[in-house]
């Protein structure tokens, strides 16, 4: 006689994981969340949208990529969920949308309840930081397809923006100024190259590097900064024309997506010094500047395009909120590209 457990799926462990994560998920709520006694779906009271004249729903989905492999190597799982939220909700806020709710999906080789609860706890904390609710999720055990210690996670979020307040390339004008909003580090892009550098250079994740002031592993697992509340507050306070979330493709590649065909973003590389981790990776990996530019955020996790008269109040507001920001460049006539001067 055989059973589901004999096939490698532990239903009891899954139920234990749900119990352990309940208190963490409860911290990531909004007043519009409606409890569903069945537990099969998440409910959100859409009457909250009645105050909008023409609400546009927005959606985004993403994962964390191979950064999860470093979390598994270091057996540290409580922040990778924050990374997931950052990658998803900060795509929504680029158009000016407020993230409303999020769901997550975790696939693993073996359900270890405490580990799953740590991962989901990170997702819940990320949602709290983003101002959105975590209203549902799924954990799937895939024995045979994944090793017992392996997992991957993905998520999707829904947001809303007033149609006539939607931000984007149509609002950008010559003479606008590009502001850089600092990243917290590598965030969640480029980790295939990061792991390649670590393996080829023989670097230890447990080694404390003087340039970093902590271990390499701690630096690389620093969670992605979540910008949504800062960006929403900035758009309420000043005339923001566009945002760009700096993820895979780097600063120039992502900022170009927020430019109209006849304008360029002329960026000043001397306006900031990238965090030390990028120098460590470039040095140990022998990575050319062009590849660093296209792979990593290099210390700029979000860019904002504002009119010149909004620069000082924008920087003052971001400073008050504890988010380092600076003038990165300007919008000039061109062909729709972001480039360094």
From TrEMBL:
<dbReference type="InterPro" id="IPR016188">
    <property type="entry name" value="PurM-like_N"/>
</dbReference>
<keyword id="KW-0547">Nucleotide-binding</keyword>
<comment type="similarity">
    <text>Belongs to the AIR synthase family.</text>
</comment>
<dbReference type="GO" id="GO:0004641">
    <property type="term" value="F:phosphoribosylformylglycinamidine cyclo-ligase activity"/>
</dbReference>
<protein>
    <recommendedName>
        <fullName>Phosphoribosylformylglycinamidine cyclo-ligase</fullName>
        <ecNumber>6.3.3.1</ecNumber>
    </recommendedName>
</protein>
<dbReference type="InterPro" id="IPR010918">
    <property type="entry name" value="PurM-like_C_dom"/>
</dbReference>
<feature type="domain" description="PurM-like N-terminal">
    <location>
        <begin position="57"/>
        <end position="161"/>
    </location>
</feature>
<comment type="pathway">
    <text>Purine metabolism; IMP biosynthesis via de novo pathway; 5-amino-1-(5-phospho-D-ribosyl)imidazole from N(2)-formyl-N(1)-(5-phospho-D-ribosyl)glycinamide: step 2/2.</text>
</comment>
<keyword id="KW-0067">ATP-binding</keyword>
<dbReference type="Pfam" id="PF02769">
    <property type="entry name" value="AIRS_C"/>
</dbReference>
<keyword id="KW-0658">Purine biosynthesis</keyword>
<dbReference type="InterPro" id="IPR036676">
    <property type="entry name" value="PurM-like_C_sf"/>
</dbReference>
<dbReference type="InterPro" id="IPR004733">
    <property type="entry name" value="PurM_cligase"/>
</dbReference>
<dbReference type="Pfam" id="PF00586">
    <property type="entry name" value="AIRS"/>
</dbReference>
<keyword id="KW-0436">Ligase</keyword>
<feature type="domain" description="PurM-like C-terminal">
    <location>
        <begin position="173"/>
        <end position="336"/>
    </location>
</feature>
<dbReference type="InterPro" id="IPR036921">
    <property type="entry name" value="PurM-like_N_sf"/>
</dbReference>
<keyword id="KW-0963">Cytoplasm</keyword>
């Amino acid at each position: 006689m055989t059973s589901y457990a004999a096939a490698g799926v532990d239903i009891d462990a899954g139920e234990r994981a749900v119990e352990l994560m309940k208190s963490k998920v409860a911290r990531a709520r909004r007043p519009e969340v409606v409890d569903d006694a069945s537990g099969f779906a998440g409910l959100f009271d859409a009457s909250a949208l009645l105050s909008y004249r023409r609400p546009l729903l927005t959606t985004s989905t993403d994962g964390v990529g191979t950064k999860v492999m470093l979390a598994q190597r270091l057996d540290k799982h409580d922040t990778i969920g924050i990374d997931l939220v950052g990658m998803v909700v900060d795509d929504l806020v680029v158009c000016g949308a407020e993230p409303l709710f999020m769901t997550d999906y975790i696939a693993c080789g073996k359900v270890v309840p405490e580990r799953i609860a740590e991962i989901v706890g990170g997702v819940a904390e990320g949602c709290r930081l983003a101002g959105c609710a975590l209203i549902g999720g799924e954990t799937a055990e895939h024995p045979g397809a994944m090793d017992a210690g392996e997992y991957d996670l993905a998520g999707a979020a829904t947001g809303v923006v007033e149609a006539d307040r939607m931000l984007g390339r149509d609002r950008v004008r010559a003479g606008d100024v590009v502001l850089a909003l600092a990243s917290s580090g590598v965030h969640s892009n480029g980790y295939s190259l990061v792991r390649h550098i670590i393996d080829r250079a023989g670097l230890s994740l447990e080694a404390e590097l003087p340039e970093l002031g902590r271990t390499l592993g701690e630096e690389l697992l620093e969670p992605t900064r979540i910008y949504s509340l800062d960006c929403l507050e900035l758009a309420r306070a000043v005339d923001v024309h566009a945002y760009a979330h700096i993820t895979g493709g780097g600063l120039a590649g992502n900022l170009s997506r927020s430019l109209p065909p006849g304008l360029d973003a002329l960026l000043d590389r001397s306006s900031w010094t990238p965090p030390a981790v990028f120098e460590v990776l470039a040095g140990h990996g022998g990575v050319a500047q062009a590849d660093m530019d296209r792979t990593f955020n290099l210390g700029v996790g979000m860019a904002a395009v504002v009119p010149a008269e909004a620069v000082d109040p924008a920087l003052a507001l971001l400073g008050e909120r504890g988010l380092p920001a600076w003038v990165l460049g300007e919008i000039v006539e061109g062909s729709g590209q972001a480039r360094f001067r």
